[in-house]
Write a structure and sequence with these properties.
Elements (H helix, E strand, L loop, with lengths): L1 H4 L10 H9 L4 E2 L2 E2 L5 E9 L3 H9 L1 H7 L3 E4 L6 E5 L12 E9 L3 E8 L7 H4 L4 E7 L5 E10 L3 H26 L5
Antiparallel strand pairs: 1-3, 2-3, 3-9, 4-5, 5-6, 6-7, 7-8, 8-9
């Protein structure tokens, strides 16, 4: 998303960050952790009242991305294909400020692995961000919801990675909540 897609940046610091996430996104389960080598892994999950097929279509099609995450999208759904997005409704394929995520691997209807290969020109710490990846897994639950898990490894030690980790831990939570809201929002009367 953001990673899967790049979204809102949050300047959350210190030990209060986890509490802030739970207040801001109470339906997102944050089980992020550090690996033995010190690299951090963003791990977020949410249950969504929708079929895995419907969520898969949202994550793997142009129309799906535009329905909940961005103003512009173009999806080439194949290994090596690109999910190209922008928050600018005037964006076109190939614009230098578009976000491009390369599809690294997938299992139809179950798992999508991506990594960012282009970020907007003014995006800070691009080189470090390009060293991370995102895996999104979908699993049907007993109560006929879909458990969506986003795992993003590669956040090493250092100021650049610290900044990215905070930004995407928040941003990916935001994106999962928007995905849930797409399927669960109630029509207004």
């Amino acid at each position: 998303m953001k990673k899967l897609v790049i979204v809102l940046a949050a300047l959350l610091v210190g030990n209060g960050a986890r509490a802030e996430f739970s207040k801001e996104f109470p339906k997102v389960d944050d089980t992020s952790y550090a690996e033995p080598n010190g690299s951090r892994v963003i791990r977020l999950s949410i249950d969504i009242a929708a079929s895995a097929d419907d969520i898969w279509q949202t994550l793997t099609t142009t129309e799906g991305w535009k329905s909940y995450a961005v103003s512009f999208a173009a999806v080439d759904m194949q290994v090596g294909g690109i999910i190209e997005t922008s928050y600018d409704p005037k964006a076109k394929v190939g614009d230098p400020d578009n976000i491009k995520n390369e599809i690294v691997a997938y299992v139809p209807g179950k798992m999508l692995a991506i990594r960012c290969v282009q970020a907007p020109r003014n995006f800070e710490n691009k080189k470090e961000f390009f060293a991370t990846s995102t895996v999104i897994e979908l699993e049907r639950t007993a109560d006929k919801k879909t458990h969506v898990t986003l795992t993003a490894p590669g956040y090493r030690q250092g100021d650049a990675y610290d900044s990215l980790y905070k930004k995407f831990r928040f941003g990916d939570s935001y994106t999962l909540e928007k995905l849930r809201a797409k399927f669960e929002s109630k029509p207004t009367s």
